[in-house]
UniProtKB/TrEMBL annotation:
Occurrences of domain VWFA (ranges): 144-329, 346-516
PANTHER family per the UniProt record, alphabetical: COCHLIN, COLLAGEN ALPHA
Name under which the protein is recorded: Cochlin
InterPro entries the UniProt entry points to: ECM_Assembly_Org, LCCL, LCCL_sf, VWF_A, vWFA_dom_sf
Organism: Erithacus rubecula
Phylogenetic classification of the source organism: Eukaryota, Metazoa, Chordata, Craniata, Vertebrata
Amino acid sequence: SLASTAITCFTRGLDLRKGTEDVLCPANCPLWQFYVFGDGVYASLSSVCGAAIHSGVITNTGGVVRVQTLPGQENYPAVNANGIQSQVLSRWASSFSVTVILAGAKNTALEAVGRSVSTARPSTGKRPKKTVDKKAGNKDCKADIAFLIDGSYNIGQRRFNLQKNFVGKVALMLGIGTEGPHVGVVQASELPKIEFYLKNFTAAKEVLFAIKELGFRGGNSNTGKALKYTAQKFFSLENGARKGIPKIIVVFLDGWPSDDLEEAGIVAREFGVNVFIVSVAKPTTEELGMVQDIGFVDKAVCRNNGFFSYQMPTWFGTTKYVKPLVQKLCSHEQMLCSKTCYNSVNIAFLIDGSSSVGESNFRLVLEFVSNVAKAFDISDIGSKAAAVQFTYDQRTEFGFTDHLSKDKVLSAVRSIRYMSGGTATGDAISFTTRNVFGPVRDGPNKNFLIVLTDGQSYDDVRGPAAAAQKAGITVFSVGVAWAPLDDLKDMASEPRESHTFFTREFTGLEQMVPDIIRGICRDFLESKQ
């Protein structure tokens, strides 16, 4: 029969039993929660529906796909496609591929599902569904947007009204709704004024009305002041910002700013806000002398890569500029300044170098460290990694600021030399809290410590672990071989079950990698807005 099995967003290849199986993926899975390893051929650890969207077989509206089990392989690559960043995995025991079912077969499978649904609820007409969708908005566009409009004397009342019309058209095309984009407006003039917040309206009609009602304030165009104020104050949870959704400020500038934008741009990046600048009527050659900083656009935008700046010659005939701007604002994967678990964490690895580990198992431990580190965007403004090896003594292999790129971190991990000696895990945790996390304690990133040990500690681990947690560090304990479960649980953060890992053999470390990465991301999302 061609009927398909309905699965969830999180069903993995290894959860399916048959060699070839037709499955129905649900709609609206949260893209950022997908774990996908590889490209085209996916490690069986991967989410099936995630792989199907990544490979372009279906979109986030779901659908039926055919899953084919394949043998394992080495080096599954990381590729960003269709809004999903797949991850690297060095080896896995089995794989799968995802394909479209041929047109005839696809219909039968969907009909089988459709029939069972319609017999259960015969009254479901087509119409009610439409209104629900309108209310939900464009679910494919994930964004919380502040339009920072120019209310200065530079623009004047007449062009201010044209600006309002343009912002209204952009808001309309975005597809605002409960599950779509949310928008608010801030007016920049002498002093910034938040006109309405993200939480005030979730229907396009209401937003359009609110934009129409905006009054022109006049004054200097202190855009820098307004940008800084918006980045700091606008996107709070109580004002309607949503967790895990990109924060965007679209700055409209008629002419040039009266103040400096550079500091505001830095503040916005620190707060994880993506700044776009829409400049209209750029300063003429004569006017350039009045501009404080000719490169003001490059200093304020999220990244100076051309994507975040947008130009319109005048406020007249702007309709053709609406769609390209909306497409940019809805490009979830291009929002390089958003804080995600991948670019906003500090992860320190505390590595047991005691003599019971042995040289060849120590290599497997280092491979585990590399595979976890590989998943994160390590850079000077992104995530950071550090490593400490311990026996009775501790040795900082590298601190958070020593290597500011993923390649450098991975090569530093490879060159760690095995110490061999006793096991004083408690002391090592205290040492790491003080010396490795101390210097970054007030930084923007969330702190994680992964303790890897293969045996009983000679000293108390509970006190040092509690102190680390009190200092804002989330602790994962990973035990191998003779590591006692009580010690592992005593070290781990709450809830202990999801922060404690154990394997009999060092070869089992590799299978824990996706769960550790997922755990870090889960903790990150729960802690931050």
